[in-house]
Amino acid sequence: MASLHKNNSLYRAFPALSHSPFRWFWGGQIISLIGTWTQNIGQAWLVLQLTNSPFLLGLVAAMQFVPTMLFSLQAGAWIDHLPKRKVLIATQTVMMILAFALAFLVGSGSLRYWMLLVMAFILGVTNTVDVPTRQSFIIELVGREHLANAIALNSAIFNGARLVGPAIAGVIMGIWGPMWCFLINGLSFIGVLAILIFVPAIPHQEKLTPKKETLRKDILNGLSYIRKTPSILIVMMMMGFLSTIAMNFNVLVPVLAKIDLQAEALGYGLLMSALGLGALIGALTVAIRSAEGPQPRLLLVGAFGLGMFNVVVGLQNTYFFSAFFLAFLGWSMIVFSASANSLIQITVDSQYRGRVMSVYNLVFGGMIPIGSLYAGTLSDLWGARITFIISGTITLLFMGGIVFWLRRYRKDEGHENSSFV
């Protein structure tokens, strides 16, 4: 079997799939993530139906990520000392219960806007633990050698789900209503939980070190490690800024569809699918190039693409071209974020992995409340298209400053052979 794996062209292109535990986990995530995106689309459309307010839509998105701002650092310190499989079983169970609860509330006609805020907050607390745990769990499935490929493959299924889930949600909402979006998501967790419980032994499991420090000392040590590791620090800075300004698609795309383009639920779902198609191609781009090692230049290409295509999408006034350029925006987003994740995980020491990935989760997801309120407020004032243009312009100016600073840093510190720029 080992020789088959080595000779199989699929395993040569995507070596992470040669690890049986990863294949099981990866397969389960495909189904679960489609359910997650089905719920995301259903929830956003439901909020607009209930309130017709881009700001209140942004508030729901913000509420889901407030816990990441508040608890992400503490979660990272805990994760470094807990068995990750058991943590994932707990978090996935809670998310399944929340999905079924939303389906019941919508189906019974008893859902109110404030309930969505509460549910979003609880889901945010769960995700604050779940996301860095899943990211830290990958190395236990494939080892360090194939880690970059595994991260890129995870991005591929996440964005494949971003392609399929919205299209399914658009059809379902048009025929049966949003309740079924939440019900499908709840059912999608069953397979993941079964795989987590029965998956074969983890071949690269990292040994847990005894907890000798206080929680506060653990957090401070993790932050100090990031500060003293420039390659991680600069990626964290870029991720924090771009996730706040340039990646507010869960707010902007439904507003663009419903208000700017006057589309129905199916039209909104297809716009999100266009974004997902580009993101899937971007994830496969990173996966195929992962064999070449870390790709800092690809990171910069994705970041500049985010700025440029935000502007281009904002300049469109027809449905077709909006969808067409959203695909390029999705490609840029995933090329940037998957490259950032890979660069950090390949660089980080194992003993700091949970804490560093919790900080990554903080700057990626924890800034979303600010970004959601920013996007929702500007969309209320000037519409989604103007907000896209403003966001893209700010991003391009920021990235120009980053490249200028990096070149000065290389020259001043003597890092002339750095491949970052």
UniProtKB/TrEMBL annotation:
Pfam families from the UniProt entry: MFS_3
InterPro entries xrefs: MFS_dom, MFS_trans_sf, TM_effector
Localisation per UniProt entry: Cell membrane
CDD domains: MFS_MefA_like
Topology with respect to the bilayer: Multi-pass membrane protein
Gene Ontology, cellular component aspect: plasma membrane
Main location: membrane
UniProt keyword Ligase, yes or no: no
Domain Major facilitator superfamily (MFS) profile: from-to ranges: 16-410
Keyword line: Cell membrane, Membrane, Transmembrane, Transmembrane helix, Transport
MF annotations from Gene Ontology: transmembrane transporter activity
Positions of transmembrane segments: 55-75, 87-107, 113-131, 151-176, 182-202, 232-253, 265-286, 321-344, 356-376, 382-406
PANTHER family tied to this protein: INTEGRAL MEMBRANE EFFLUX PROTEIN-RELATED, STAPHYLOFERRIN A TRANSPORTER
Protein's name in the database: Major facilitator superfamily (MFS) profile domain-containing protein
